[in-house]
Design a protein that fits this description.
It is a single chain. The chain has 16 helices and 18 strands. By secondary structure, it is α+β, with helices and mostly antiparallel strands. It has 4 domains: about 90 residues, Uridine Diphospho-n-acetylenolpyruvylglucosamine Reductase, domain 2 (2-Layer Sandwich); about 120 residues, Uridine Diphospho-n-acetylenolpyruvylglucosamine Reductase, domain 3 (2-Layer Sandwich); about 110 residues, Alpha-Beta Plaits (2-Layer Sandwich); about 80 residues, 2-Layer Sandwich (Alpha-Beta Plaits). The strands form 4 sheets. The chain has a 7-stranded antiparallel sheet with strand order 15-12-14-13-17-18-16. Strands 5-6-10-8-9 form a 5-stranded antiparallel sheet. Strands 1-2-4-3 form a 4-stranded mixed sheet. Helix 1 packs antiparallel against helix 3 and helix 8 runs antiparallel to helix 13. The C terminus is likely disordered.
Amino acid sequence: MDKQTINQLQKIVGPDQLTTTTEELLCYSYDGTAREYLPEAVAFPGSTAEVSAIMRLASQVLLPVVVRGAGSGMTGGALPLKGGLVMAMSRMHKIIEIDTDNHVAVVEPGVITGQFQDEVRRLGLYYPPDPASLKFCTLGGNIAECAGGPSAVKYGVTRDYVLGLEAVLPDGRIINTGVRTAKGVVGYDLTRLLTGSEGTLAIITKIILKLLPMPTNRATFLVVSNSIKQATALVSRILSQHTPCTLEYMDRTALKIVESELPFALPPAAESLLIIEVDGNQETVTSQAKNLHIFLKNEPDLLSVRQAQDEAERAALWSARRAISPSAFKLKPHKISEDVVVPRSKIAELVTFTETLAAEQQTTIFTFGHAGDGNIHVNIMLDKNNSEELARGLIAKKKLFTQVLNLGGTLSGEHGIGITKSEYLAMELDENSLELMKGLKNLFDPLNILNPGKIFPPDQTSQKNI
């Protein structure tokens, strides 16, 4: 990046809001994949006008720009593959409005998801999307990836709560999409198009979100089984008769790596755990909890069925659940982390397949995730510096994807494509759909300066992605 461009960027955001020092650039060179690409500069815009001015300049000088929230993404979406400029949205962190009458909020993209949930909860409202990283991930990043979470089984994912957006196009033009009303069908649904577009089409600068009344009560059940197949097969039967707000699954390895953080001792024969929650008002929860308890007690061969006794026990359980992914590195220094989705009736078949795959490839593979909507996190553990382990891991990854598609599933439920899944995209999407998507990218970003190198398959010279 030449000195003139740096000077112009400093004029836009202020000299204190642009950095080019190597030590600070390193902090913005990686994301949840732990892969590193060093940017040439990092800018911290404080307004839509500054974002627009940066993109006008970027278009003039053909400067690659990558937008960054908290860098917690798991597929490389925030990595500056081409160097250029990282646009960090941490200064744009205002909760502009919470409309309690209409259950609508207006926020900037740098708002931390968990902090936003706390703020609306204080007003008796509820924002359901709850990714594992909610204590530090941002709403802008959640929208870019269309994040989900444990509550998706009942409440849906991020896109179900995005009513409208303000966004800056790659050439600096500002658009406003969507509505702040319950209905709206004027023109194409650009809001849905931008949600999940991984920062490749436009830069989100303002968000209109739908809120719900806060459920007043919740009951949490812990179901321990001595059979992974039994536990996963139980999911469909539960959902055929009950409407939980959460239905999570952990296999034996996931349990082992967080066992010390669980609020209770597991039976020695424990092979898997289901976390089941119901919510609503007191009368509804009491009724649902009673019916669910009867249903579970009648299930043969379960090791234990336990209801969390208080909020402290429930909080400890969820702390352990959210610790699974970072705790995985107790097993190996690196992992291939996939978030595949299959029909709920196929979860048991998928999990059984991963066990066979692990033995076949002589690789540690464990599973956990959102069983209620079929979104299973498959973790292939390895040391990427060991060429044989890496090769086996990549073979396992492709075989996993093939099986998921054979079961009628999809390659990503909430992590997106980024760079780690781009070379596998054609396994799921037909050629015509891919060309149409590439055409949309070119329409929005003809100069290919906004998050270049993401989503679409890399050229043949690119390195293998894990």
